[in-house]
């Protein structure tokens, strides 16, 4: 029986990967998926503008904006995709600030983005 295992798995994969069925399912889901993406894009673009404004107000060189935007996108994911808030979000933001500071970004600018753009307070000390 063990020698048939790969053959059985391949056959099951082939059955499950019916492109006509997948297309039908995606065609049914697409309108809601598109609505979701539209809402997310609007939110992300708004966040990115606020991050850029914070960077500008802090005197960050334009060449470093992409790195601060990446930090902002990571915070956006925490607050929107995982819907984390409160002390949990504050601790996750602290981890990200440590990571991006180690990569050469300015801690005070990262903290300003955390607070001004995402309204996340610093974590409570243990």
Description:
The chain starts with a helix and ends in a 9-residue tail after the last helix. It is 76% helix and 0% strand. The chain is an all-alpha fold and 126 residues long. It contains five helices and no strands. It has a domain at 37-117: Up-down Bundle (Methane Monooxygenase Hydroxylase, Chain G, domain 1).
CATH fold group of the domain at 37-117: Methane Monooxygenase Hydroxylase, Chain G, domain 1
Count of helices? Answer: 5
Major sheet characteristics: none
Summing up helix and strand content along with how strands pair, one would put the structural category as: mainly alpha
- How big a fraction of the residues is strand? under 5%
Q: Which quaternary structure do these chains form?
A: single chain
SSE arrangement:
Layout: H1 5-16, H2 19-57, H3 65-81, H4 86-102, H5 107-117
Keywords:
126 residues, single chain, mainly alpha
Short summary:
The protein is mainly alpha-helical. It has helices at residues 5-16, 19-57, 65-81, 86-102, 107-117.
